Sequence to fold (369 residues):
Amino acid sequence: MCDTCGCNVTPGNRHLLEPARPAGGPETVAVLQSLLAENDRVAAHNRAQLEAHGVLAVNLMSSPGSGKTALLEATIERLQPRWRIAVIEGDLETENDAERIRTRGVPAVQITTGSACHLDAHMIHDALHRLDLAAIDILFIENVGNLVCPAAFDLGQHHNVALLAVTEGDDKPAKYPVMFRAAGLVLFTKADLLPVLGDFAPARAEDHLRRLGSAVPVLSLSARTGDGVEAWCRWLETALDARRAGATVP
Amino acid sequence: MHELAVCRSMLSQVARIAARHRARAVTRISVRIGPLSGIEPDLLCQAFPFAAAGTVAEHAALVVDAQPVRVHCEACGHDAETGPRNLACPRCGERCTRLLSGDELLLAEVELLHQATDN
Fold:
């Protein structure tokens, strides 16, 4: 029983809690709107801005240390200069990841969230103003390393990609169903370590994913050896083609 | 723990609705939340008094209507309640099911007070 959520209010005592009603009493207004309507509004605005410039936006989400930045480095190596890439980096602290990206000649905006555990559409909106969208083909958003909170916030991206390093448990999709259900592509990263680890079964991880009703593609890759990175780059180029084919000219 | 951020977003929506209806206070906020929304109802209730302090909804009751995870099986046509970790059809085992409910994160309704009252 508490004084905040209403669990202590019963039909017998409700009248004690409610102020004397004026004529007509309290008014009940039906809303039926997302609790994150304001974030969703800004996310839609971000998406419209990206689409007006023909930019494909990909949101990378995972636990900390699953290799998001290393994957971006390997991706940049393959796709530059064919495609112009930019990165928005989300971390609680430091510019380290943005600096790693910038040394490859790619514009990177670092968002330091302080103690906030996720990026939201407002942060991305501000970051977009610091980028020249006309000079970008693919924008990567590297979300804060966290398998819980980022899944709830639309940023204006076109695709969510979830990374699962083979150094993690293969039951992560079962433990974090909200995150893995949100993913349009799942990448098993650090796959070069599979033979030495022996306890991560890709088939088991994929089975947990399928139990969530997800039919999305799954790719295994290693940013270090480069194995599988080509398939991931092909997926990106297909997504970019599809986006541009469906895009309306502003 | 992003419930505080969600709570603040909810309260700014509620404040706008209250202003539009020229309400003096908000007495109840009803929300619908499913386990696949990523929001923990208990944490939302804990965050609420902190986020609501000093707002038009300061004395409002937050009522959470928890939604079950329900799926429709495209293979056998069965509708069933399942858990968030396994959305497969409990009758035929088909994994490609369609979610009927369970990912809600909705502000359902608010109850507003218009007149100044004596106590």
Q: What stands out?
A: Residues 93 and 112 of chain A are 5 Å apart (CA to CA). Chain A has a mean pLDDT of 91. The beta strands of chain A are 27-34, 56-61, 85-91, 108-112, 138-142, 159-165, 185-189, 218-220. Chain A touches chain B through 46 residues (CB under 8 Å).
